[in-house]
Design a protein that fits this description.
Elements lengths: L1 H14 L6 H4 L14 H13 L18 H9 L12 H17 L9 E5 L2 H22 L8 E4 L4 H9 L3 E4 L11 H7 L4 E5 L13 H15 L5 E4 L7 H4 L12 E7 L11 E5 L11 E3 L6 E3 L9 H39 L2 E5 L7 E6 L9 H9 L7 E3 L8 E6 L6 H20 L17
Parallel strand pairs: 2-3, 2-4, 5-6
Antiparallel strand pairs: 1-7, 6-7, 8-9, 10-11, 11-13, 12-13
Bound molecules: pyridoxal-5'-phosphate.
Amino acid sequence: MPMLHRRQSVRDAMEDDVFASRDLSEAIPKYRFPQDEHVAEHVFQLVHDELMLDGNSRQNLATFCQTWVEPEVNELLRLSVDKNMIDKDEYPQTAELEARCVHMLADLWNSPDAADTMGTSTTGSSEAAMLGGMALLWKWRARRRAEGKSTDRPNLVTGPVQICWHKFTRYWDVEHREIPMEGDRLLMDPDEVLKRVDENTIGVVPTLGVTFTCQYEPVADVAAALDQLQDETGLDVPMHVDGASGGFIAPFVEPDRVWDFRLPRVKSINASGHKFGLAPLGVGWVVWRDADDLPDDLVFHVNYLGGDMAVFALNFSRPGGQVVAQYYNFLRLGREGYRKIHEASYATARYLADEITAMGPFEMIYDGRGGIPGLAWKITPGADPGFNLFDLADRLRTRGWQVPAYTLPPHREDLAIQRILVRHDVSRDMASLLLDDFRRSLDVLGKHAPKASFTAEEGTGFHH
Ligand SMILES: *Cc1c(COP(=O)(O)O)cnc(C)c1O
């Protein structure tokens, strides 16, 4: 009887131990679209085991992104798994939480009129940077047209930037005037900015927490230089601050550091909620100083609940849970909570910097002061320990730690450095475990020096 047979085999399948099941006792085809259905529990186990090979994200000291959330955040994400952030009519309360976050950030970043500012959540700082850059480009074009001048050759001035600004300039056909590193200057400075700005400059973008070194670029000094330029020449060049990391750190830890809307020249700011904003992956923010700084023809207006919601985004549908979780964080932590968390991270970064300096022929190029919580070092110039930083990164990897070694961008490709980001969940105790493995790694490298050995200056010939 086919019916009975079928029931029997389904029952067998349900009773089998998951690894003894037919689904898991043979390799599942990986690149053809599957023909048959499979039992949910079996497939869950299979996918779960694939994820295992990613390693342990908490030992990934390369990432700026959040790798630990409170259980309440998981629960809020679960409650929001069906919420589409773009459906502001259907989910007006999620949209309301987003709007509150924008105003809270405008307040945090000292907007002159936080209640009336413009801003939006995004999928991350990359999308936020695109939107900030587009606003600069549109405003510049409007100014030029009003003056009857050409809009053919826009340019953007940045320091050594994250890839999102390379994308922005390429996608929107803007000349990128990126200030290269030079000697010990690994950041933009006012003189280098002034050398590059002209009437076609749509804006200057300093970074608060440069990707390569974790340092803050001197936003206030650059703004002052541009103020003086305007006094002397009339040229008025706006600024956007890439605060991907620092936008969620400086306001809590160094409230007196002036980098934000307290500088009238700063027209917009982006930050990644999923970095030091401590939200789960998939949320960024961009806020404009005032409504005037966001050209109206970039904005689509949605009216819900009698209000006027400005929609400016590259995506349409995207998850709402990350924004809900961000709102939870703001209420849960407040300025006080963020300050305590980040101060603990700075203390751990400085501890690691001291210990690592004492341990080998290493010289810190960033020790957790004047930037985001982290550290970056090079091999002491002139020292030849018989291994390079790429060898050390490989050794640490055998214990699961990801401590990236890489060469710097133009013109310091000759310099190889290694970097650690200290996030929320990198505790002092975890740092001490890392240091134990650091010592063991140096021991092994000392005894069995890799064949090809490079000094710091030569380190770049050797790409892993
Ligand atoms: C991470 C980062 C970005 C990109 O942000 P995402 O949120 O990953 O899209 C841009 N700029 C800087 C300085 C960053 O650190």
